[in-house]
Amino acid sequence: MLEFYVESDFKLHQLRHCPVGGQMDSFAGWLHSASYKRRPAQLILRGAAHLGHWASARGCPTERLDTEALDSFARHLPACACRHVFRGRDPYHTQGARRFFEHLQRLGILPATATVPETLPPLVKSFSDWMRQHRGATASTVANYVPLVKEFLVACGDDAAAYDAARVRTFIFARASRFGRSRAKSAVNAVRMFLRFLAVYGHCAAELVGAVPGIAEWKLSSLPRYISANDIEQLVAACDAATASGARDRAVILLLARLGLRAGDVRDLRVADIDWSHGRLRVMGKGRSETWLPLPQEVGDAVLHYLEYFRPGVDDDHVFLRVHACLGPFPSSGPISKLVRRAIQRAGIKAPSMGAHVLRHSAATAMLREGVSLDAIGAVLRHRCIESTAHYAKVDVAMLRLVAQPWPVNGRASC
């Protein structure tokens, strides 16, 4: 398989006779299965060979490589002064070394890297488990709450029986003064949930939960950020369905714009979640709630087109995968927002925000203007309370004019 990337007999000889040459052919085979293109694969192969020479010069055999050696190799690269033919300072050398290290682990030549779990205080560990098991919290939510709870324990101590309203409020106000409103609200949510957990197990009084202050703001004071129906059509048209990335992006954007899905919903969507016979798809929402949504014909056609012609043949059940090496599912919801941003830029649309959530707002706004009730919109968006959906009522200016009261002028109503 090495010949797929390297044509020169001389270079093939150099690669196969370097200190890690015995694994070069199988490594090249893995690169090919992961859809690495010619030039990136060549650079990665050079990085693997560079690692082999570097380790050999230090008397470190291949089977003794570890993560510490990888880190030392990465520190070596910026000032690399090696004399062998694979020397270099290109960032691909670091990537090549890490990919080769992972390949050796897959072959069993190196042991799997033991992940050292973060050492959490017992109370925080119990809180994390409770959040996952009893609140249905996702890993990202727990990861956001844990640092805030640890900070709370540092400030207030780990003796929950000694907590009082003054101590809780002092922590919230101190944090709010250092950070913006958004991060202060995160601290409020985390502390409130932590106190609720403590109250459940009798570690503190249940009334203490009510002592957590809210962050002052005008309820429903902002307008939803959205783009028009015409802009949505331009956005969809900006995705070339004849290419792998275009077909994938078009299907993703239609799911976001027609069904109001969150970026995380699209990222986590599995092939088994699509019920083709009944024209619907399953979405796992917050708190592990399961919802079945109708699959519009246009959206289903776009998803099916991507699955049939462009989805990589990777052993993974996520619907949407990366189109460039290393193939696999999106690591987070961030790349979903990035592909929306790129589509907005291609379409030349002036959008109030450039992420995936603007399409969720746009879907809700479009439904409202078509006469769909707030209850129905809330059901599609999977809102837990009508107040969240009421946020979109403000964009229907024509309806607001019908219910608006005249403003009094000189003591008399005037229109």
Walk me through the structure.
The chain has 415 residues and is mainly α. It has three domains: 2-107, no CATH class; 122-211, Orthogonal Bundle (DNA polymerase, domain 1), CATH 1.10.150; 229-399, hpI Integrase, Chain A. It contains 18 helices and five strands. The chain has a three-stranded antiparallel sheet with strand order 1-2-3, with no helix packed on it. A two-stranded antiparallel sheet has the order 4-5. Helix 2 (24-33) runs antiparallel to helix 3 (38-57) and helix 11 packs antiparallel against helix 13. The longest helix has 20 residues, at 38-57. The mean pLDDT is 86.
- Lateral arrangement of strands in the main beta sheet: 1-2-3
Poorly predicted sequence stretches spanning 5 or more consecutive residues:
none
* Count of helix runs: 18
Major sheet description: 3 strands, antiparallel
CATH architecture of the largest domain: Orthogonal Bundle
**What's the end-to-end separation, in Å?**
79 Å
CATH level 3 topology of the largest domain: hpI Integrase, Chain A
Can you tag this structure with a few keywords?
53% helix, two-stranded antiparallel sheet, hpI Integrase, Chain A, globular, 3 domains, DNA polymerase, domain 1, single chain, three-stranded antiparallel beta sheet, 415 residues, 4% strand, 18 helices, mainly alpha
Compact overview of the structure:
This protein is mainly alpha-helical and 415 residues long. It contains 18 helices and 5 strands.
Sequence-ordered SSE layout with sheet pairings:
Layout: H1 9-16, H2 24-33, H3 38-57, H4 67-76, H5 91-107, H6 122-134, H7 139-156, H8 165-178, H9 181-200, H10 229-237, H11 244-259, H12 263-268, E1 274-275, E2 280-284, E3 290-294, H13 297-309, H14 334-347, H15 357-369, H16 374-381, H17 386-390, H18 397-403, E4 407-409, E5 412-414
Antiparallel strand pairs: 1-2, 2-3, 4-5
Helix pairs in contact: 2-3, 3-5, 6-7, 7-9, 8-9, 10-11, 10-14, 11-13, 11-15
